[in-house]
Amino acid sequence: DAGVTQSPTHLIKTRGQHVTLRCSPISGHKSVSWYQQVLGQGPQFIFQYYEKEERGRGNFPDRFSARQFPNYSSELNVNALLLGDSALYLCASSSQGAMNTEAFFGQGTRLTVV
Amino acid sequence: DQQVKQNSPSLSVQEGRISILNCDYTNSMFDYFLWYKKYPAEGPTFLISISSIKDKNEDGRFTVFLNKSAKHLSLHIVPSQPGDSAVYFCAAARFTGTASKLTFGTGTRLQVTL
Fold first, then answer.
1. Which helix (H) or strand (E) holds A103?
2. Cis omega before residue A70 (within 30°)?
3. Interface mutation target, options B33, B98, B103, chain A, most CBs of A under 10 Å
4. I need a labelling partner for A64 at 20 to 30 A (CA). Which of A28, A46, B69, B84 fits?
């Protein structure tokens, strides 16, 4: 069974550019969440999407946006990249929106902003 | 405001002994607590969870204890094995009407020595 897949695995961008990260959830899972993990910290919640609707948003600027497609895959977009956006971006899928007791994570996309 | 704290950044334990990883939280509204293990270049892997209405959950070598009055939980691994060497994240979940969000601690790096 395929787990959560993220692409690309690594990415280098220049300050001010835009980036799109992609996530395919586990088959049958309808919820996708995005997390940012900066070196030495735990993952920080960015967004949750369930049934193609945004269900939760963390404390991130409007430069961060996301969407979920009819096949439940998801994209995370970050505009006007800053050096501080360099991090590991993790996608997690789960079968439910609320009352979700377990999230399965992908391997992440390592974004470096130079 | 760090709502979930792991005050020990690292822990070294001899193979066969017990590993005890600790986690404190401040928000009494959390509904569920989870432990994730993370190897380098991989996403977090779910280990074990516990509902806020319970005080213990066991799964093989892993046991999680919850002390609600102290807002403290711990993960016990016994016996510890070299393959357990990884970073362990404590996470807390709060369920709203339509979403769930994980709040992570900063992680504890466990090293199991021979």
1. none
2. no
3. B98
4. A28
pLDDT of A14 reads 98
**C-alpha span between A44 and A92 (Å, rounded):** 12
User: Structural domain boundaries of chain B?
Assistant: 4-108
Dist CA B74 CA B55 (whole Å): 11
Q: Which positions in chain A touch B98 (Cβ < 8 Å)?
A: 50, 55-56, 97-98
**The pLDDT of residue A2 is above 80:** no
Q: Which residue has the tokens 């016996």?
A: B79
User: In the numeric block, which tokens belong to residue B46?
Assistant: 């779910």
Domains and CATH numbers, chain A: 5-113 (2.60.40.10)
Domain B4-108 has CATH 2.60.40.10: yes
A21 touches A9 (CB < 8 A): no
A57, closest residue in chain B (CA to CA) = B101
| CA dihedral over A74, A33, A25, B21, signed as positive or negative | positive
Closest by alpha carbon to A7, among A19, B39, A28?
Answer: A19
pLDDT band at B113 (very low <50, low <70, confident <90, very high): very high
List pLDDT tens digits, range A42-52. 999 999 998 88
Backbone φ and ψ of A85, nearest 5°: -80, -5
3-state class of A85 per DSSP?
Answer: helix
Which residues of chain B make contact with A55, given a CB cutoff of 8 A?
98-99
Give contacts of B 89-108 with A, CB under 8 A: 89, 91, 93, 95-107
